[in-house]
Each structure stands twice: as structure tokens, then as C-alpha cells.
Amino acid sequence: MSDLLYLFQCPISKVLYFFHGRRSVRESIFNKDVEI
């Protein structure tokens, strides 16, 4: 069961991180605070 939970959690965390990353990048660009 823990393996199933892990396999189910991993993609979700990646998706959440991906959306959060895009959102932060989008806000940074909008605020013109882009730092490389």
C-alpha cells in the first residue's frame, strides 16, 4: 500500500511543483523581477 501511495504522490508532487514553478516564473516576469 505504501508503494502505491508513493507512486501516486510522486506525480502529484511533480505536477504541483511544475504548476507552482510556472506560476512563480509568470509572477516574476509580470513583476519584472526575473533573476537568472
Description:
This protein has one domain. The chain has 1 helix and no strands. The chain is mostly helical and 36 residues long. The chain has one helix spanning 2-30. The mean pLDDT is 69. Helix content is 81%, strand content 0%.
Question: In the residues, how many domains can be counted?
Answer: 1
Helix content: over 70%
Q: Main sheet, how many strands, which sense, barrel?
A: none
Shape: rod-shaped
Any chance you could write out the topology, listing elements then pairs?
Blueprint: H1 2-30
How would you briefly describe this protein structure?
The chain has 36 residues and is mainly alpha-helical.
Label this structure with key terms.
rod-shaped, 36 residues
